[in-house]
Design brief:
Blueprint: H1 6-34, H2 39-42, H3 56-64, H4 85-116, H5 123-143, H6 151-159, H7 165-172, H8 175-185, H9 188-204
Helix pairs in contact: 1-4, 1-5, 4-5, 4-6, 4-9, 5-9
């Protein structure tokens, strides 16, 4: 993990991860504010300053995992302040993953343009752009998994009829343990891998092995 290339990986991957997480949380906070809840704004979370979104253990995990995994502080949302809470929760939850897909597309287009134009940029620039595509696409699809506390669980709850709300709340008690187990064994890659590979190739034009 802490080999001779650790500092090089940190200088390239860490800014990409922090930017992806910051934009993700910013759009959660922005949509919550637009739907009537100023809780995140009042707590200083409606910002693109990454320091406002950093989570100590999530940041520590970035280093321990070799910049393959980490998380930010969840944006607080008071559903009692929302206009039409079910619709609002759907859009607030979807804003994070879809903002990452948007970033992935932007970085992919920048990668294609700079690489195709043969600009002779430093290799680190191409690595940063490509890694940013992979990180944002991976973060988007990971958060769309319908397991609490990921965004996908809120999206699913908003889309299903109200009669399923109580069973889903019961399932949420066990969902974090299922989520952690799947992370430990790497089970998500078998499901998400094809989608991540497809979108990375779609955005950047280079296939993942």
């Amino acid at each position: 993990m802490f080999d001779s290339n650790f500092i090089e990986r940190a200088l390239i991957a860490l800014p990409a991860i922090l930017f992806a997480l910051t934009v993700h949380e910013f759009f959660h906070a922005y949509l919550a504010y637009r739907f009537g809840d100023s809780t995140a704004k009042d707590m200083g979370r409606l910002t693109l300053n990454p320091l406002a979104h950093l989570d100590f253990f999530g940041t520590l995990m970035m280093f321990l995992s070799g910049f393959r995994f980490g998380w930010a502080k969840p944006v607080p949302v008071n559903h009692y302040n929302l206009k039409n809470p079910r619709v609002a929760d759907l859009w607030i939850s979807a804003a994070g993953p879809f903002s990452n897909l948007g970033l992935g597309l932007i970085f992919g287009l920048l990668f294609r343009a700079s690489y195709g134009a043969d600009l002779a940029l430093p290799p680190a620039v191409y690595q940063f752009l490509y890694i940013s595509v992979m990180i944002n696409v991976s973060l988007a699809f990971f958060n769309l998994i319908p397991l609490y506390p990921l965004d996908g669980s809120h999206i699913l709850k908003s889309l299903l009829p109200a009669r399923y709300e109580i069973p889903l709340m019961e399932f949420e008690r066990f969902a974090p343990f299922i989520l952690m187990f799947l992370i430990i064994i790497g089970g998500f890659w078998f499901v998400l891998g094809p989608f991540i590979k497809f979108f990375v190739y779609l955005f950047a034009g280079i296939r993942l092995m």
